[in-house]
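## retry 2 of 3
previous attempt timed out at serialization; input unchanged, resubmitting
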Amino acid sequence: MKIGIIGYGKMGKEIEKIAIERHHNITLIADKDDINKIKNISKTNVDVVIEFTNAKGAIENYNYCFDKNIPVVSGTTGINKNEFDNLVTQINKKNKSFFWASNFSVGVNITFKINEILAKMMNPQTDYDISVEEIHHIHKLDSPSGTAITIANGIIDNIDRKISWKNDYPAKEDELSIISKREGEVSGTHIIEYKSEIDKITLKHEAFGRKGFALGAVLAAEFVFGKTGVFSMNDLLK
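## retry succeeded, writing output
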């Protein structure tokens, strides 16, 4: 495939490397500020765009691609929920193609599933308080991470005593606390903790680098090519 990359930081460079290893051609590279390159993107030289930038300009980037009927794979997090929901509605209405994930790592997505199963089991165990901790490198702008929010929502959907999350500790009794830390060059660590007076249960995922995220994004690009609709890692991992 001919792949365009929007967002050429450390993740973009890792995506480029993996895509070439998988025998794809990188036909466009645009950093988040290369607006003219993004505006002039063309179906003739790009089959799929992989976008990792920031919440401020992501939806505009998507729309430039959708206007040219180019599928978009994105891992940009921190986008306003109402904006994102409206975007999804428009994509479905206009038969565009969009693949979004808060985290493209296969291991993280397995962790999402285990997290939901564990939450269902722990729902009747009201003696346990619950918290989520996420640790990322100091360059990460959004807080909490999109992965931590996905984990939190998986808990809230299955634990009756938690109705919302809060990016702070401690939180109210009906809130799930997300603790965010920014340290060095940490690729991403997520810890789910259930703690009572008598014991503690911990579920942890630790990334050792960006390769797993980049591979997942390229697999998503391969998956979404030729399809219309909105897709996630659940669709890919089936």
